[in-house]
Write a structure and sequence with these properties.
The chain is α+β, with helices and mostly antiparallel strands and 153 residues long. The chain has one domain (28-135). It contains one helix and seven strands, in the order αβββββββ. The protein has one helix at residues 2-22, and strands spanning 38-44, 54-61, 75-84, 89-95, 103-113, 119-123, 133-135. β5 (103-113) and β6 form a beta hairpin. The radius of gyration is 24 Å and the shape is elongated. Residues 1-28 have low confidence and may be disordered.
Length: 153
């Protein structure tokens, strides 16, 4: 009898760590991003867009900057040209500046150009929902108040 319970005990031991892992919240695609990092924004069009020659995007800080970061950068921008994967799929790199304010960044707009003169800017509600990009930055900076000003002839 004691040997028939051994396989069941081994099975329970193997399944227990997996079940606790399955209960953990999934990591965000932006977990651990900070100054100097980058991420990729993937864009999927509903219909083919074979003639995209340029694109841009902007993410904005949700809410106010934390104390000590009020003068930091509060937006993220796409850098470089869009990369065409196929007629419906493109991707672009988004660089995170060194002096970026910590917090959640929401996609504000995407601009797409089909030639040198014609472009379209997508804004909410034209944009599908996208989870905010979480940026961490422990750096703080405080400017000393100006004590005195003087003018002399």
């Amino acid at each position: 009898m004691k040997y028939t319970l051994l396989p069941l005990l081994l099975l329970a031991t193997c399944l227990a760590p997996g079940s606790s892992y399955a209960q953990q919240a999934p990591l965000s695609a932006s977990a651990g991003l900070g100054p100097g990092d980058s991420f990729t924004l993937f864009i999927t069009f509903e219909d083919p867009m074979p003639n995209v020659v340029g694109a841009g995007c902007a993410f904005g800080l949700r809410g106010s900057a934390k104390p000590g970061q009020e003068d930091f950068v509060k937006s993220l921008r796409c850098t470089g040209s869009p990369v065409k994967d196929d007629d419906k799929h493109y991707h672009m790199k988004v660089a995170i500046p060194q002096d970026v304010a910590e917090g959640d960044y929401d996609l504000v707009w995407i601009s797409v150009a089909v030639d040198a003169e014609t472009s379209h800017q997508y804004q909410a509600p034209q944009l599908p929902s996208l989870a905010p990009v979480k940026i961490t930055n422990p750096k703080k900076l405080e400017f000393s108040p100006i004590k005195k000003l003087d003018v002399k002839p």
